[in-house]
Design brief:
The protein has eleven helices and eight strands. The chain has 337 residues and is α/β, with parallel strands linked by helices. Strands 1-2-4-3-5-6-7-8 form an eight-stranded mixed beta sheet, sandwiched between helices.
Length: 337
């Protein structure tokens, strides 16, 4: 993946390539190199959270579904991106890969992302490491085999922040962590998504999902935040200022983005193998904001191909597939089992 090149029909290292390599895979590409069924037979579990809330976890067990399944099977846990879910194209691609390896697989949904509004006066955010901590510790406690985890976009930043906060305890919970297309510098990513084409397409797409959920949360808890400011928000900066920051205890968007960005503390990660994958043409994550080798410790591996878009990395003939991502990241995780 660190040498990834897009297929010729989607090639391009600049903004055009970054956008088509982001949009096309999400809308049209297969989740696997072969025309396999897209549907994944998840089993949904509802977990009670420590604060009285709940999350929904979609689980795919390898038992009885793969000849290579072992009694102490590895478990791959995927944390999805902003407004993602277990049905996102990347989650389905990793599900098929895990099933082929005889691994168990699980997608814990961030609060409010499983199709049902959560109970408490909160949602989720890019630095929600405490949420990741109790989720991963429960997986480690209940699963008999080793656990590895991958986070996509927002989910990857959450995992990196968790690894930084967990310190030496992280390796007792999981064997390795991968973060894919993660906005490690939230301010740089927020500025990028609020401008030009990104503002008209991606920014609008996210707000069409985020704002109704926030207003539904306000109906649950009147006075939780400033409704007028929320309705007036036109980009993620204004949305985070009106909703995410005040609801989750931050002074404002700038405080939230500064405190939750994983990039400044990547040197602190020790004892836990970490892979950080970012395409240089990701329209959400400016290449200039990506960490260099001098900004990370020896336990962090950087893959920064020139192409790939945002959680795209398409491959194959038209219409293409997104299996190249798990086929690269999965074996990296497996070597640390």
């Amino acid at each position: 993946m660190h040498r990834y090149q897009a297929p010729w029909w989607l090639a391009g290292q600049g903004p055009w390539g970054g956008n088509v390599q982001t949009i096309w895979p999400a809308l049209f590409s297969r989740v696997h190199g072969q025309p396999l069924p897209v549907a994944v037979p998840y089993e949904r579990q509802r977990w009670d959270a420590p604060d009285g809330d709940f999350i929904d976890v979609d689980v795919l067990s390898a038992m009885g579904r793969a000849q290579t399944a072992l009694p102490e099977r590895p478990l791959l846990v995927l944390f999805h991106g902003l407004e993602g879910a277990s049905g996102s194209h990347y989650a389905l691609a990793f599900a098929h890969w895990a099933q082929a390896q005889g691994w168990d697989y699980a997608v814990p949904h961030f609060r409010g992302c499983s199709g049902e509004l959560n109970r408490r006066p909160r949602s989720y955010h890019s630095g929600d490491f405490a949420e990741a901590d109790w989720v991963l510790r429960r997986f480690a406690r209940e699963h008999s085999g080793p656990v590895v985890t991958v986070g996509m976009s927002l989910g990857g930043n959450v995992l990196l922040r968790w690894a930084q906060e967990a310190g030496s305890q992280a390796r007792t919970v999981v064997r390795a962590v991968a973060a894919v297309s993660s906005p490690l510098d939230l301010a740089a990513a927020g500025q990028a998504i609020g401008q030009g084409f990104n503002r008209q397409v991606y920014n609008r797409m996210f707000l069409q999902s985020l704002k109704p959920k926030a207003l539904a949360k306000l109906q649950q808890f009147p006075g939780l935040f400033d409704e007028a400011a929320l309705r007036a928000s036109r980009d993620l900066y204004e949305f985070d200022n009106a909703f995410t920051a005040p609801v989750h205890g931050f002074a404002g968007t700038d405080d939230y983005w500064a405190r939750c960005s994983a990039k400044p503390r990547l040197r602190e990660i020790t004892g836990l193998p970490v892979l950080v994958v970012n395409a240089a043409n990701d329209p959400f994550v400016p290449a200039a904001s990506l960490p260099g080798p001098h900004e990370v410790g020896s336990w962090v591996t950087l893959w920064q191909p020139m192409e790939g878009g945002h959680v795209g990395f398409p491959a194959g003939r038209l219409p293409g597939h997104v299996a190249s991502l798990p086929e690269a990241v999965g074996p990296w995780l497996a070597q640390h089992l």
